[in-house]
Amino acid sequence: MAGAMNYAIIHIMRHERIQIDPEVMGGKPVVRGTRIPVELILRKLGAGLSTAQIVAEHPRLTADDIRAAQADA
């Protein structure tokens, strides 16, 4: 468990909008304060959705959150 926490701290430092918490979505990277996985955002972008479309589908997200998910990949 300590290793996971250290990884989470390092990962959080990479980008403050992305968090990894073993208690949230099984430790997958998510947008901080949500249960929206980075993986979901990347899949939607890969499917051709625009940032505006993703934000419309997930109103808790911002364009900055989408950019953070891309940077985290």
Automatic annotation (TrEMBL):
Domain of life per record: Bacteria
InterPro entries for the chain: DUF433 (IPR007367), Homeodomain-like_sf (IPR009057), WH-like_DNA-bd_sf (IPR036388)
Pfam families reported in the protein's UniProt record: DUF433
Protein name: DUF433 domain-containing protein
